[in-house]
Amino acid sequence: MKKGDHLFLVDGSGFIFRAFHALPPLTRKSDGLPVGAVSGFCNMLWKLITNARDTSVGVTPTHLAVIFDYSSQTFRKELFPEYKANRSAPPEELVPQFGLIRQATVAFNLPCIETEGFEADDIIATYARQATEAGGDVTIISSDKDLMQLVTPCVHMYDSMKDKQIGIPEVIEKWGVPPEKMIDLQALTGDSIDNIPGVPGIGPKTAAQLLDEYGDLDTLLARAGEIKQAKRRENIIANADKARLSRTLVSLRTDVPLDMPLDGLVLEPQDGPKLIAFLKAMEFTTLTRRVAEVTGADASAVDPVEVTVEWGADAHGPDVGEGAAALPEPAKAGAVSAISAPAVSPDALTPASLAAARAATFKGAKIDTEAYETVRDSAALDRWIALARETGVVAFDTETTSLDPMQAELVGFSLAVADNTVDAAGTAVRACYVPLSHKSGRGDLLGGGLVEDQIPEREALARLKPLLEDTSVLKVAQNLKYDYLLMKRLGIEIAGFDDTMLLSYVLEAGTGSHGMDALSERWLGHTPIAYKEVAGSGKGAVTFDMVEIARATAYAAEDADVTLRLWHVLKPRLIAEGLATVYERLERPLVPVLARMEERGISVDRQILSRLSGELAQKAAAFEAEIYELAGETFNVGSPKQLGDILFGKMSLPGGSKTKTGQWSTSAQVLEDLAAAGHDLPRKIVDWRQLTKLKSTYTDALPGFIHPETKRVHTSYSLAATTTGRLSSSEPNLQNIPVRTAEGRKIRTAFIASPGHKLVSADYSQIELRVLAHVAEIPQLCRAFDEGIDIHAMTASEMFGVPVEGMPAEVRRRAKAINFGIIYGISAFGLANQLGIERSEAGEYIKRYFERFPGIRDYMDKTKAEAREKGYVETIFGRRAYYPEIRSSNPQVRAFNERAAINAPIQGSAADIIRRAMIRMEGALSHAGLGEKAKMLLQVHDELIFEVEDEAVEATLGVVTQTMENATRPSLEMKVPLKVDARAAHNWDEAH
DNA sequence: CCCCAACCGTA
DNA sequence: GTACGGTTGGGGG
């Protein structure tokens, strides 16, 4: 190395963590292997090698090395055993990427440097010193503050993520001291992440000020008595030794013995095929193409290299490049090694076999509900929190006074961690319950107060908050949205979580319940204590705060225990089934989004509903009188049984049909037919039913959902209720507010914006038909959507040869019914019912439709075959819907399942699309400066409702429309455009 | 008190 | 013909 040479030193270990946390969407290979950090690393290296001059570094390297940590056993650990002791295990998705990044380095023809007993930082310091002494310049590719002490006029750092060079001025700007004082500064402040003690109470600002005043640490310590602030003075004097120890720990060594001399770091030309083979194995298509272009290699002639994937605790190790195929023992495996014991033959180590082994281990493992700990004081709670940090995964569950998270008050919470101290036969999970506000059982003058020996809620929450908000500790919960919302109301935003309910839902939507009790039966062979066994049911029910603490502990801690076991079983299956992306992109991120929507609620005008209710009552009463007159007697009009007897018994009207229980059917369809045949009574029943339905379900019920404090209505969305991926809404259901009839729409006028705001409604136009056009690749449909043509008129025109211009409404209506029928997995029976025509005629229509659109029949046949073969169908984003009964020998059952299987990819893909839009929406609004002005409130399958400040309405309409219309991108480009209609008004009726 | 059937509101 | 949730009546325990 000589003057003019420029050495780049890449902090490989640092980059991995940085990339992992900075790159938001988790990137995975098609087999589920997480490769986000590897991708970031490769892109960064490629840019540095080919294009560093155009970055803010501004020079091209002549030498380059990538430096890694060898292991956690370093000289610092010998000096200070607690060094880095409270580091939690790396995130699960990160573990296999350590080895891959080393392999990437080799593929780039770059030296991969590591030395036993030293950290990457020391190696970097040593090379930087040597290079400077030889007259060269150095750029350290890292933004780690621990390396800033190395910055000199000849040594710069470079933050590749922010494309920002860090020199002396930048260090001073950031820390208030020049690089040569960074060591002293760090000695004073310490570092909680690396467990460097420092001086308590001294942060960067104070440290910089002190160093500015006294010059350096030694002077400061010598003259500490002069410090004016008493507390600070005592602190520094008392902790002088700690400061000196800290200084040694943060000082980087520049004398590390190096196997590779500086001249060995000369940047070699790229070996195109070698690099491409690796990039292909990682499925980095864009970078593969670029590398092929630049190196002149023929990418298509290169086979992907076999990569080594290590999931285990040794993934930090240096061994690279050899070994067998993927070995996805899930991360954190070490933590549960005691219970994931069953031997699996080495050649059977596939994701699927490992998932199966996990399932076998946990199935039937004994769960002892008497073995749980009741946490009575903060010291005990702190021990559990430390345990959670140590293992990196903790199950969390709250116990409250209500199923409604907006009303619920916290009573206690439970935690569970994997126990790696017991043998394979023992209990493998440890759990505890932390009671906070249990009351004594007696409600008389003496009792009813708080039970003794409970941690005060504020104190417990203060201790819990850092754990729950720390993304490096995974919180596992069942139906986390509930706990998320509850904790958010208490000032805690849970971050870094998994939800066992959602894991189950992604793995097997369509096969039964995803509730905890059902999952426990299914996967653990264990029946958890029933809630009603603890808190009673019906009239004898009490709120959980009245439950005796010992009993509460058994119940609550078991829930956390079971949840953690389920996670151990289900999470590996996600990888094995290739469903990690669905879970991580469509499911998990929606939890906080929905929680915030639920928390916001929507304003409902009580007066409007009350007035409507009165009107409906009057009108219904008038109908009742007429009904009794026509019937010749009074009866309960709301009783289909009594009504059937009147209509078909007493009055012996013709055309009655029976329900499957043998009752007379009084459905709207039957009554409409009778009305059309000239009978007066049925018409009046239909009208009466509409009015009473509106009254009982909407105008009377909705006010009861207005929250006493927020004065708004907070629905609850279920993420795991449908087979197709749609959400569902309940308590109240705001996804079935009337819209079709004028009378019904009046109810929508009661949903209003706050003063100074508008409601914005944005809905996808014909999204399911567009999805159909895309998945079945129907040219006419695609063209019609491209050109914005009326899709039902186009269908009618194709089928019946009628020109679109001047088409009779009835012809279009029939085509529209057929289009909907197609989406629903059409049958002649159903279409005939819908259109009121003969089944044979409906059959003709379908036949003609398939002649004009043969691609639709192909799609339907293909979907049915897929469902029969695999038991499930998939949406365009890979979500599965299972139909276990599709092979039923009962033709009706089978046909029903076939229609559902045809519908699911269409309905489900539309659901995926709006989910993506919702997940991005808050970010998009914030980006446009609307984060505080426009709030998403409701989702109704293809519609999103927002509440927006008046002045921000125009801007919001644009952002919302764009976000929704672009929701599939960049993952997927549809063959038809998505169209969104959006408008604003004071109430929901006018906005829709 | 619990559960089911019938009916009907939405996409 | 698909997917939901809520209300009511009514039967059984």
Outline the secondary-structure elements.
Blueprint: E1 6-11, H1 12-22, H2 36-51, E2 63-67, H3 75-79, H4 95-107, E3 112-113, H5 120-133, E4 137-141, E5 155-159, E6 164-166, H6 168-175, H7 182-189, H8 204-214, H9 217-222, H10 230-238, H11 240-250, H12 272-282, H13 285-295, H14 351-362, E7 373-374, H15 378-391, E8 393-400, E9 410-418, E10 429-435, H16 457-469, E11 474-477, H17 480-489, E12 497-499, H18 500-508, H19 516-524, H20 531-535, H21 549-576, H22 580-587, H23 590-600, E13 602-604, H24 606-631, H25 640-650, H26 668-676, H27 680-699, E14 712-713, E15 716-718, E16 728-730, H28 742-748, E17 751-752, E18 757-764, H29 767-775, H30 779-787, H31 791-800, H32 809-823, H33 828-835, H34 839-852, H35 854-870, E19 872-874, E20 880-882, H36 891-927, E21 934-939, E22 943-949, H37 953-965, E23 980-985, H38 988-991
Parallel strand pairs: 1-2, 1-4, 2-3, 4-5, 7-10, 8-11, 11-12
Antiparallel strand pairs: 5-6, 8-9, 9-10, 13-14, 13-17, 15-16, 18-22, 18-23, 19-20, 21-22
Helix pairs in contact: 1-2, 2-4, 7-8, 7-11, 12-13, 14-21, 15-16, 17-23, 18-21, 19-21, 24-27, 26-27, 29-30, 29-36, 31-32, 32-33, 33-34, 34-35, 35-36, 36-37
The structure holds a DNA duplex (11 and 13 nucleotides).
